[in-house]
Design brief:
heterodimer, A: mainly beta, 4-stranded antiparallel β-sheet, about 50% strand, B: mainly beta
């Protein structure tokens, strides 16, 4: 059974800084089936990245995704005030499994 | 767009049905899922219905909850039976992105289900 681990649990940043969020799978993920979602307090989750590195419609290019083996990374090049939220990674191939989330706060 | 209804307070062992009406696409041409989020917790996939009507469930709800759709109403449903306090959560209706497996590109606004013991 695959397990997803996200780190850090909380990332404290200032606007304008670079954010690097990690998601590690316990087994190899075939087909780059890894997605990232953003959830702000009291709001519905929003798809950011799918297939490890493809931005969803309407997502600013300051958000990018990458993969290296079983390690996946979400990068926010310059954090804006609107980006403070919880970010979840998700295995999205033949089933669904979410990671525990990383909170990005001030 | 996905517009949800249903939800509320239900006693342990009781039943509840969640509804989700879609606009802008037809539910029988897409995979559709339910995802839930317990208060203060992360996201958990619950169930999916495929285009051919095949359904799958998370182990935590298998045998108790069932997903269905009504093409005349362009809606999907989650029938929740034998509910437990552990079922307390916000339930989201989601669309599986076409060609994206279990990537969820559209989300309903959510319906809160609270199970009292």
């Amino acid at each position: 059974e695959v397990v997803l681990t996200q780190s850090p649990g909380t990332l404290s940043l200032s606007p304008g800084e670079r954010a690097t969020l990690s998601c590690r799978a316990s087994q190899r993920v075939t087909g780059s089936h890894l997605a990232w979602y953003q959830q702000k307090p009291g709001q519905t989750p929003r798809l950011l990245i799918y297939h490890a590195s493809s931005r969803a419609t309407g997502i600013p290019d300051r958000f990018s995704g990458s993969e290296s083996g079983t390690d996946f990374t979400l990068t926010i090049s310059r954090v804006e005030p609107d980006d403070f939220a919880v970010y979840y990674c998700q295995l999205s191939g033949s089933s669904s499994l979410f990671g525990p989330g990383t909170k990005v706060d001030v | 767009q996905l517009v949800q209804s249903g939800g509320g307070l239900v006693q342990s062992g009781g039943s509840l049905r969640l509804s989700c009406a879609a606009t802008g696409f037809t539910v029988n041409t897409q995979f559709m899922s339910w995802v839930r989020q317990a208060p203060g917790k992360g996201l958990e996939w619950v169930s999916v219905i495929y285009v051919d009507g095949t359904t799958y469930y998370a182990d935590s709800v298998k045998g108790r909850h069932s997903i269905s759709r009504d093409t005349s109403k362009n809606a999907i449903y989650l029938q929740m039976n034998s509910v437990r306090p552990g079922d307390t959560a916000m339930y989201y209706c989601v669309r599986n992105m076409p060609g994206g497996g279990y990537v969820f590109d559209y989300w309903g606004q959510g319906a809160l289900v609270t199970v009292s013991s």
